[in-house]
Design brief:
The protein contains 10 helices and no strands. α5 (101-131) runs antiparallel to α6 (135-148) and α7 (162-186) runs parallel beside α9 (213-237). The protein is mostly helical.
């Protein structure tokens, strides 16, 4: 793993994207076979989380990939209130317990790990690898790649239908832009990991009772609008963090 990283940071990022997508696709049918929601997914995600964190810790790369506190005051990020609103998106129609206790616990563990893994891979490895040559290209590629990666939900046994998946992809691309601006301007990936994990966990308790197509579209459009407006606001009000984006660094 270290040899791949030292040879090419971009290749390392792409390898991890492939590994992550493959394991996620492999886990879905195994979850159904075992009969416990997200049980195998949780195991796979825990393993990946531990490996990623230990790799970065051992090679003193935590700071390079933003696993450190931001030095920017929270008021500059509007106290992250828009993130709280976005994290609650899945609960706008109500709260419900959708799985058994073991399934709920496994799903929560899985979603927390997914927030960490995806942020480290897409806003960490991939973005940083591309930003060395062109920051604007890195923002677009990492965000769009993150969104398009959700196409796997059409073929990996998740049961998601096309219309729902298209909205998910659009939302993921917008969130990708927001999170890369958050990490770039704040010099930390932690707010993104926390917000991403919160969005994921809230989806477990989403109540779809009485959720019509029209209502779902309205919720998505509101979600898109808040995400786009918050991203635009941060882009206009916060200067770039040249240390994090251009130079990076290792832990000292």
């Amino acid at each position: 793993m270290k040899k791949i990283y030292e040879k090419s940071e971009l290749a390392f990022a792409l390898v991890w994207i492939v590994i992550y997508c493959f394991l996620q696709s492999l886990a879905n049918p195994l979850n159904k076979t075992l009969g416990i929601e997200s049980s195998v997914s949780a195991v796979f995600c825990i393993i990946q989380t531990v490996i990623l964190f230990c790799f970065m810790k051992k090679n003193r790369l935590l700071k390079r990939y933003g696993l450190n506190k931001t030095s920017v005051p929270s008021r500059r990020f509007l106290y992250y209130i828009p993130l709280i609103v976005l994290a609650a998106r899945n609960l706008w129609n109500g709260i419900a317990v959708n799985f058994s206790l073991p399934g709920t616990i496994c799903s929560i563990i899985c979603m927390l790990c997914v927030g960490f893994i995806e942020e480290v891979i897409f806003r960490g490895f991939l973005f940083r690898a591309l930003a060395k040559d062109n920051a604007k290209t890195a923002i677009f590629v990492s965000s769009i790649t993150f969104g398009l990666g959700h196409l796997l939900n059409l073929v990996n046994g998740s049961g998601m239908e096309l219309a729902e998946n298209l909205f998910q992809i659009a939302g993921a691309i917008l969130i990708g832009f927001l999170f890369v601006i958050l990490s770039d301007r704040g010099g930390s990936l932690l707010p993104c990991i926390i917000a991403h994990s919160a969005i994921n966990v809230s989806s477990i308790f989403a109540d779809e009772t009485g959720l019509t197509i029209e209502k779902g579209i309205v919720f998505n459009l509101i979600f898109f609008a808040i995400t786009a407006l918050y991203t635009l606001t941060l882009t206009k009000t916060l200067p770039q963090n040249p240390y994090f984006c251009r130079i990076g660094g290792t832990d000292r």
